[in-house]
Amino acid sequence: MSSKGSVVLAYSGGLDTSCILVWLKEQGYDVIAYLANTGQKEDFQEPGAKNVFIEDVSREFVEEFIWPAIRSSTLYEDRYLLGTSLARPCIACKQVEVAQREGAKYVYHGTMGKGNDQVRFELTCYSLFKGHNDLMEYSKQRGIPIPATPKNPWNMDENLMHISYEAGILENPKNQAPPGLYTKTQDQAKAPNIPDILEIEFRKGVSMKVTNIKDSATLQTALELFMYLNKVAGKHGVGTVIVENRFIGMKSRGIHGAPAGTILYHAHLDTKAFTVDREVHKIKQSLGLKFTELVYTGFCPECEFVRHCITKSQERVEGKVQVSVLKGQVYIPGRESPLSLYNEELVSMNVQGDYEPIDATGFININSLNKVTTK
Amino acid sequence: MSSKGSVVLAYSGGLDTSCILVWLKEQGYDVIAYLANTGQKEDFQEPGAKNVFIEDVSREFVEEFIWPAIRSSTLYEDRYLLGTSLARPCIACKQVEVAQREGAKYVYHGTMGKGNDQVRFELTCYSLFKGHNDLMEYSKQRGIPIPATPKNPWNMDENLMHISYEAGILENPKNQAPPGLYTKTQDQAKAPNIPDILEIEFRKGVSMKVTNIKDSATLQTALELFMYLNKVAGKHGVGTVIVENRFIGMKSRGIHGAPAGTILYHAHLDTKAFTVDREVHKIKQSLGLKFTELVYTGFCPECEFVRHCITKSQERVEGKVQVSVLKGQVYIPGRESPLSLYNEELVSMNVQGDYEPIDATGFININSLNKVTTK
Amino acid sequence: MSSKGSVVLAYSGGLDTSCILVWLKEQGYDVIAYLANTGQKEDFQEPGAKNVFIEDVSREFVEEFIWPAIRSSTLYEDRYLLGTSLARPCIACKQVEVAQREGAKYVYHGTMGKGNDQVRFELTCYSLFKGHNDLMEYSKQRGIPIPATPKNPWNMDENLMHISYEAGILENPKNQAPPGLYTKTQDQAKAPNIPDILEIEFRKGVSMKVTNIKDSATLQTALELFMYLNKVAGKHGVGTVIVENRFIGMKSRGIHGAPAGTILYHAHLDTKAFTVDREVHKIKQSLGLKFTELVYTGFCPECEFVRHCITKSQERVEGKVQVSVLKGQVYIPGRESPLSLYNEELVSMNVQGDYEPIDATGFININSLNKVTTK
Amino acid sequence: MSSKGSVVLAYSGGLDTSCILVWLKEQGYDVIAYLANTGQKEDFQEPGAKNVFIEDVSREFVEEFIWPAIRSSTLYEDRYLLGTSLARPCIACKQVEVAQREGAKYVYHGTMGKGNDQVRFELTCYSLFKGHNDLMEYSKQRGIPIPATPKNPWNMDENLMHISYEAGILENPKNQAPPGLYTKTQDQAKAPNIPDILEIEFRKGVSMKVTNIKDSATLQTALELFMYLNKVAGKHGVGTVIVENRFIGMKSRGIHGAPAGTILYHAHLDTKAFTVDREVHKIKQSLGLKFTELVYTGFCPECEFVRHCITKSQERVEGKVQVSVLKGQVYIPGRESPLSLYNEELVSMNVQGDYEPIDATGFININSLNKVTTK
Question: Which of B112, B132, B273 sits opposite A244 (nearest CB)?
């Protein structure tokens, strides 16, 4: 049978893409399996595709996708750092490069809000399999190995930013997570009683350097420092949350871990509060809500726009924060910044000049002019 | 000298109000000291005022001021639960009642955005004292006892929701909190290794009942359950944050503790995510940002309005969450709700009907129509 | 052939629904044609359906759908009063009543964001006809009369709020509207040179009474006053705009006329600015943007929520405005309100008390504390 | 008496600054009168100051202050184009340059949210005069000429963007504007019955070129085209609105005219709707609301930030619009753009490919998943 053309398949090693790979070949496509490594720990079985591209995109993932999320303090529905959502567009961009290089006719990937054909194609595949059980059936028939083995009755999604466990016994929101579920973060009860104290340096809202006060370990590249923070945070059980995920196609409940992300979220917040004008911060918070929503649903023009605005708001986010990591908690005992707004304020409170108590009278009077309660 | 009339002074027992009390009497006012107990632990020295009203307003504080804050997930600059700001209007309202009852000509209080004269009056007082040192001087001359003694070189602000430590040695953001600073919350390192598991029930976004799974302790009134949560959270070291405070007249750095507030913040978030439509939630988040800002700066018409809107958004926030409290962390291992959106979704993923995979094609295609990046 | 069950079809008299009606019967459905009159001027040909329900829903349309839009100052992309979008949910609600009464198995309507089956059904029909030409073809074969005759080479959508002209020769954005296109509004050049002066009364943001100063004509019910405003506005050429419509399935360019809506939009704006606290107004503006977007895309939970919030913001919107209508323009020469914020302010500027110039000093100083440009 | 130093006074020729000038000299200051010409038509009497600087800042005013307002569609409370507010910071910036050049110790100006001392100084002056009558009294005593003569019983504020009439007989909101009030715009009734048709070209949201179709008059510099639009708009009676102004120190009611601004507001809106992604536009609308509020209250860090974001949103706002100006109305009969989103859409509606009707099914189904009304 003559080939219908070649398709670049974003191969995850998971059940879904394993089945789709086989199915695509059955349909007469030449499949180029593309496996982007964003930091997941997996030993991949030979997908049996025409060509296999395995590529480490960790550095790009941290610099181009994680940093913007930290800068905008993305916290979906106030809890979820969006580790899964952030990896998707990163993989997709890389995959499109491969397709162009290989002259592939189709691209199969998992992101949304991109061009039409590849996505329609993707979902046509999906529509063949009605739910999880159907996939299991198909894989049994074709002898496709099933990653989610009996001893791990749930799915995992892992990358540098994030690990999540979903489905299986976790589906019922009343079920608790079984012991030994977490591979990335230590159980708080078993975590050390002595904190690690880190010094994290930011410039323009991006973390440039991490130093461990105890042993002076110092890391200066994005990827290295992020991986180091994962290690320290994991050791102290930082960053695990349990959330409902209420979006199409995602499982209904997830246990999410984002060790390094959680430390950086807090360290960045503190530097921001210390250096950014309060009013600018307020506007940036609204843009951050929008950005979070957009990352969650997929990158698109407004996302580019919002990302640009948030970057602009970070110009003054510069300084060193001390971060204490202990028993799943992240504290900021101290900080300093050449751009601190705080020193000026300190002064303005103690010596006359900038500010006099009487000023507050006017401030209050004018704010209370013509106030009429709507009660 | 004939009296200039009587003034109701919101007496805190602190240095400021102690000095102002004396100063007011020197100016020829009859001072009625009003001391609203919002849950602070203090033994008050006789303020030497004409009349002293000490009133316990804890219940009102929880029901009328703390509950709305929990409902709107107020978290000032993503970190501060606004424990101090919430108490101010509560005290002011009560005090105005006293003034009306006593026919007082003036009210002295600390809230903003209210009528003009009492506030102008208030700040005229303040303007007599230039900063902290000036107050110390005045109090020495008049033999006014100084609450902030050498052994506690910082100021404290305490109420049911909140305890904060500010000023003194804490002013320098590089200084860490001295050991033994915290009176309300246990040090995580010393906290128990076994969690307390609570079940918290919400109706219309308000917590109605708390049960401790271990010993079946059950609490059903707002005040009781809030005090109980303070106890449990304190024991496990929950709710302490260190923040910069960048607002007029407040000290420059504060260490804030809100034990019960922190548990309820998380428990409410979870119930909300579980029961409220995602789009309603998004709009409510923006209103919550506004509400937080307004509480921080003072109550006013728009605050009444926003509070009303947020209350409306909470009609479906109903359910039971399990809350695990351990080593300063709050987890939500499980939850259930008669109004859950999640069961419907679960179904929609597995059996045909509500939702079919092919639908996602259209969803994606239409969302990606005419997308043009602004890059 | 036995019936597949009956379907309530929202019959518009237009080409689309005429074709679908025939097609449905060919498919073996009993069709109940439901024609909701929202104020369009049409003499309807017998649709040849099993039953025909023609119902005048004008009053409900004005009170339940137009009033909320006026209260929230809906102006899609700053120009379009959403006359078409507002009518859709009104018709749908009525139609569902009919279906329930008649025990119909299916409902065919044009709104979005409602239940799934009727909509899927609807669009399955649509998918039979690829574009306008295909419909023409089908209608010729079946002898279905075509409303858009050669002498009117465009489509019209009309209701009490709104008339729009789309498609045909109007599709090209460079083409101007042909003379004699407008049936509802007079050409400004030919409009009278003497204005009509109306007095419009509002309570809670809703217009309760309209009086024409010249002839003392007075109207007091929602429907009557709205129809009267259409007449006056039309005579003076008020309310025509030309906009691009960039939404799925709608034609690419529309000429929209909303005579009464335009007068009420301005009259309401003025009363609002006169009576609502500035800060409340700001928050309400953001909610209004959201409401506009939601009406445009379809009613849903968040729309109910936002509508509720906006209603709350209108409690003080009460007063009488004089409105001058001339040559396509709406002026507000004067207004008065028992709840005006303006008199208080006027006073506060002239006599001492509320406000003293020195207050502004403090207001400015405090607002400018710690301002650091982000340039 | 030795000089207390020199002060640069932003001299307007109006009553206020005339009085303050005299008062300042009485206080022993050397006064440098600075008169920034932003397009007002006035013959200025010799202010009797030490030095007088008269500077034409019209070009800067248009390019640096009016253009950003047009790009963000600033419309304060949905009606007022902010012509007065925009001129203030422009004058202030220029004035600071003069002060630096002349080594003046003080600057007197009318903007807010700037440094503290000059503003405090300014308002200390104001606080000498309680209201308008007091100023009149003072000016009589000192023989200061009063601009608002009996035949013009109101104040005027004029610049290139804007003319407004306030105070005097206009204070009462029930009083209508007297005939012959308007000097910049023709009465609609008397305006020509033949429209002028203009073609306005935009690039990045800024108007680059204006051509009059009738006589091919062409203007290509910011200042020239803006002045030309004032002329055409004025001739056709475009741009007059009557609004309440509810801000400190401003008169209570104003009649505002912004002829050119009104044409550009509509022309820009149309180009924007034609070229900007709908979602980007929505976010930009919220930022625009914020920008409007900030311009109204004074420039500050967040204003710089928001202005930057809005500029970013304008990158695609490019095209030619035809504008018809007639009887106070501005129509956009046609437009074209190389970056139009509209052509792509047109295509997508008629030929298969981008979009298929069936897609809408999924779009609707997914949007309506788990929708639960909050009613």
Answer: B273
